[in-house]
Amino acid sequence: MNNKLLVTLLIFVGLFLTNIQIVKANNQADNTVRNFLEALVKKDEKKAQSYLIEGVEIPELKESTPLGSIAGLPSPKKGVKVIVAYFRSELGGERIAFIWEVAVKDEKITQIRVIHDGTNPFMEEAKIEKNMK
Questions:
Q1: Exposure string (b/e) for 35-57, b if CB count within 10 Å is 16 or more?
Q2: Considering only CA atoms, which of 132, 133, 62 is closest in space to residue 97?
Q3: Is the pLDDT of residue 88 over 80?
Q4: Distance separating the N- and C-terminal Cα atoms of the chain
Q5: What is the pLDDT of residues 27-46, one digit of tens each?
Q6: Left (φ > 0), alpha (ψ -120 to 50) or beta: where does 108 sit?
Q7: Does residue 22 register a pLDDT over 50?
Q8: How far is residue 33's CA from residue 86's CA, in Å, rounded to a whole number?
Q9: What is the mean predicted confidence (pLDDT) over 80-106?
Q10: Fewest beta carbons less than 10 Å away: which of 17, 83, 98, 101?
Q11: What is the phi-psi region of residue 34: left when phi exceeds 0, alpha when psi lies from -120 to 50, beta otherwise?
């Protein structure tokens, strides 16, 4: 009886600790992306670059319209976040500035993949349709 209780307790503790590590890893990725985006919005390129590994470039934002809201969304891929940013609009409507897929490992951004560049949405329409299929 004591052996069964001990085994059950060890399994429970092992599963509990595994879940804590997963949550901690997700929080680190969230914090890295959040800090990177804050630096990007403040136009602090040096700080934004500090969150990237060597060789990763920040995609060029071709439009001078300031960014309004930014949403970091989860991805089904491990260690990946999807970032959707909107341009601030004086007319009340929002227009997507960009959609990026950002990979994070060990508190550093290892890849930024441009899914959509909203500076010229009509030119990007075919590319989005192709990527979504």
A1: ebbebbeeeeeeebeebbeeeee
A2: 62
A3: no
A4: 56
A5: 666 788 888 888 887 888 89
A6: beta
A7: no
A8: 16
A9: 82
A10: 17
A11: alpha
- pTM beyond cutoff 0.70: no
CA 59/CA 49 separation, integer angstroms: 11
Q: How does DSSP assign 2-16, residue by residue?
A: HHHHHHHHHHHHHHH
Distance CA 131, CA 93 (A): 26
Alpha-helical segments (H) within the chain? 2-41, 45-49, 121-132
Which of 85, 75, 97, 87 has the alpha carbon at shortest distance from 30? 75
| Structure tokens, 128 | 């989005």
Q: Tell me, what amino acid is at 70?
A: I
- CA-CA distance, 105 to 63, in Å (whole number)? 30
What DSSP character marks residue 55?
A: T
Q: What is the DSSP string of 65-80?
A: SPEEEEEEEE-SSTTE
Query: Which one, of 85, 38, 44, 37, lies nearest residue 65 by Cα?
Result: 85
Per-residue pLDDT reduced to its tens digit, 107-127: 899 999 998 887 765 555 555
